[in-house]
Amino acid sequence: MTRHLLSVFAMILRSESWALARGIALSVVVLSMGATLLGLSGWFIVAAGAAGLAGTGAVFDVFRPSAAVRFLALGRTAARYGERLLTHDATLRALALLRVRLLARISAAPFEVMSRFRGAQVLGRLTADVDALDGVALRLVIPLLAGGVTLAGAWAVLAWLVDPRVASWSVLGLAAGSALALGWAMRASARPSRLAAAADQAFRVRVIDHLRGRAMLAFAGQLDSSLASVLDADARARRAGLQVARVERRAGVLVSVAVTLAAAGALLLGAELARGGVITAPKVALAVLAVLALAETVAPLRRGVAEIGAMRDAARRVNRMLQTTPDPRPMPAGPQPDIAPGLQLDTVTLAAPGARQPLFAGVNLTVAPGETVALTGPSGIGKSTLLNAVAGLTAVQGGRILIGERPVGDWTEPDLRAVLGYLPQRSALISGTIAENLRLGAPDAGDAALHAVLADVALDGVVRRMGGLDARLGEGGKGLSGGEARRLVLARVLLRRPRILLLDEPTEGLDRETAARVLQGVRRACPDAAILLSAHRKVERGWANRALPLIRL
Ligand SMILES: Nc1ncnc2c1ncn2[C@@H]1O[C@H](COP(=O)(O)OP(=O)(O)OP(=O)(O)O)[C@@H](O)[C@H]1O
Q: What CATH number belongs to 2-324?
């Protein structure tokens, strides 16, 4: 699991290595200045007192040490500011890049993978999981590296200036005690921090499900129980969050105990050595206060280790998503191929997504430009699955699908999308104006083209009543009836003037008369298109030139 955290850090390091290296260097400077400041202050106070007692106070140089104390105090603040700026900026930029990469992978996921995504979960990956990962660099790796380097440097300086035994007791004691405290905190918080993140994710998913399904839940009498499950997830997240905070506080107490023991040990050992005349009293004060300041090397790690369970889970999920979804295919804007794209199915065998057993086998079909063929057969036979395969979204088990005499798999994505239009069974409208929804299909289309295509799908009157092309729709096209929303999606498909047109139950939800008008409009909009449709209704079968009944194996 730690491997996932390391791979996230490696990714951050790769994209922001220079800024992070400078951040770590500044962090070492900040910690060293802090320790030097307190150590020097301790030495200064005791040395000045000793000089006063010895009657040499008048010649004791107070100017240089006090100037150094001021320089360290001011310089430390400036270095801290620079370090925060650099490390946060580098981390946030790397995470923004990660978010973009994740989104690109999700958007380019194969159809089978995409159709299993749950909106709220994907949103969770992109927001909560990526946010959780900011701690990997800021609260784990950077403080660990900077703290390690500072402690090693502090040991060397104290061993040289004071005494190796005092240095070893204080620095190594502090490091070992803190490591034990943080190790305990890491183990104790792993479960609650994971639970807190999972409950938070469940809360988001349930809130969205609750809001989306509230009408259905109200009719089923389940509104209260759905609300209770939302509140339950929230309560669990808060309980687990409190547990994490408790562990973090206790870890803080344990680290303070370790620091105090290290400083007290340094004082006792130093006093003994001072009594023996091995070192001077001001040097003992220097060591003791420097150790107290070195507690700062450990402090930022407390929160990092307390969050480690959530970070590990987030890193695992993000890595898995990056690995299981392929790199987006390049989308060169190639010229539209010069073909007469009829459609041909050559002994096609097809299975449902993820299934081995074929739905049907050996299907042959040719749809010439200007021709319309209706796929018929019982519900679940595989009409939609076949349309998905023709659209290049799923693979066939056997045989070939040719568009313009070229297998679908050999087409580049932009070329295929340029010749092929598809109205699937479920399709999306965005919240925005009617015009914005239509121009998703053809961004350069003028208002006249939009009005013409709306007339083709018999929506011109409806849009006029709503206030025209700038009338706004709510989320998922709210503001239109089911049949109107479907016709608006159909209009968006027609606007691209596709040469191959795939329609999955295009008149579902329309009365017979409107259905007939819409089907006539489709042909008017695309007179030369080869049209293949999944047809349940007589009006659709009657409109087609021929039917291809699919037969279960
Ligand atoms: N995403 C999916 N994952 C797994 N199986 C699926 C998926 N989509 C469809 N199926 C299965 O594939 C089979 C064919 O479904 P398909 O939707 O193609 O039938 P259809 O003929 O279009 O039905 P209908 O006329 O009711 O729309 C069904 O048994 C269905 O359960």
A: 1.20.1560.10
